[in-house]
Design goal:
By secondary structure, this protein is α/β, with parallel strands linked by helices. Helix content is about 40%, strand content about 15%. Bound molecules: phosphoric acid mono(formamide)ester.
């Protein structure tokens, strides 16, 4: 493959967000992810695309799904993986993000996957290192690989994204998943709605091309996809909802509210879930309606695609 062809496939050094990514780049990552889903079904053998490459997972915030699936993805591609988390790093001794980045850079990794609690921190780090950087979630800003795996899950079930009505419900204010999904779904031609109490809707979100609903039943009317979000209590100072009980009554997804969506509407949730807060527990486990564990499965293939696209 010529250098020109490579550039056409995914012409970016880093994956810092979905905002600004052009449809061919998004489609390239989704198609490559689908190829990895098929490949993983056929064989559990390790691939060698990233043999002799080093990936560092640098997580300043907790994670189950994203960190482990990046680790698994890297291993399946034959890379050497280093995992560094806040608790075990010298950040605990006062080292800054930039000094940490420069220290890791000196070890000459090929890629660093970063999660940080501040919006913009991953971009800042990418400007200080020589290797590629993937944003694994930066504060309330973006979580691009989550949006890609959500899109892959939707495509596998609905065959298209263009023309679908998608409702994103819950704590939109603090959600990087909502922002990345809004960018991606709008770019691929979906109609996106956000549903939440006024306290959990960011100012000017309508400028991102979404319709705002404060009433769950009205917002869910005739939608194809429902993406439920967790209340991010760790990012809240003060009270945003009167009580958890009241929140579930008005904004928790249960069978009664689900009736307002299309009869084949699919439920997604990026996890971690708070059962009985934003979603009824029995509904979350209903494999005819919910694709929550399929999303996790798609996460490995999507992260394989992102690692390969940036390193090939
Ligand atoms: N969806 C998501 O980012 O989950 P984790 O926090 O477990 O990585």
């Amino acid at each position: 493959m010529t250098e020109d062809n490579r550039k056409k496939k995914f012409p970016h050094k880093h994956l810092l967000g979905i905002e600004g990514l052009e449809p061919p780049s998004i489609n390239y990552l989704i198609n490559l992810s689908q190829q990895f889903v098929d490949e993983l079904k056929l064989s559990s053998n390790k691939l060698s695309f990233l043999k002799n490459k080093t990936c560092i997972n640098l997580f300043f915030e907790n994670s189950t799904r994203t960190r482990t699936s990046f680790e698994l993805a890297g291993k399946k591609l034959g890379a050497d993986i280093l995992n560094i988390s806040l608790g075990s790093s010298s950040i605990k001794k006062g080292e800054t993000l930039i000094d940490t980045a420069m220290t890791l850079n000196a070890m000459q990794p090929n890629i660093i996957v970063v999660r940080h609690n501040d919006a913009g921190a991953v971009k800042l780090l990418s400007e200080k290192v020589n290797c590629s950087v993937i944003n694994a979630g930066d504060g309330p800003h973006e979580h691009p690989t989550q949006a890609l795996l959500d899109a892959l899950t939707i495509l596998r079930r609905k065959k298209t994204i263009s023309g679908l009505k998608v409702a994103i419900c819950g704590d939109i204010l603090h959600s990087r998943v909502a922002r990345s999904n809004i960018h991606l779904l709008n770019t691929l031609g979906a109609e996106v709605r956000v549903i939440a109490p006024a306290t959990l809707i960011p100012n000017h979100i309508e400028n991102m091309g979404v319709k705002i609903f404060y009433n769950m039943k009205m917002g869910l009317k005739e939608v194809d996809i429902i993406i439920m979000l967790r209340l991010q209590l760790e990012r809240m100072s003060g009270s945003y909802v009167p009580s958890i009980r009241e929140y579930f009554r008005f904004y928790g997804l249960d069978r009664e509210k689900l009736k307002f969506a299309k009869s084949d509407a699919l439920i997604l949730h990026p996890g971690p879930m708070n059962r009985g807060v934003e979603i009824d527990s029995e509904l979350a486990d209903d494999i005819d309606r919910s694709a929550i564990f399929e999303q996790v499965q798609m996460g490995v293939a999507v992260r394989m695609a992102c690692l390969k696209a940036l390193l090939e």
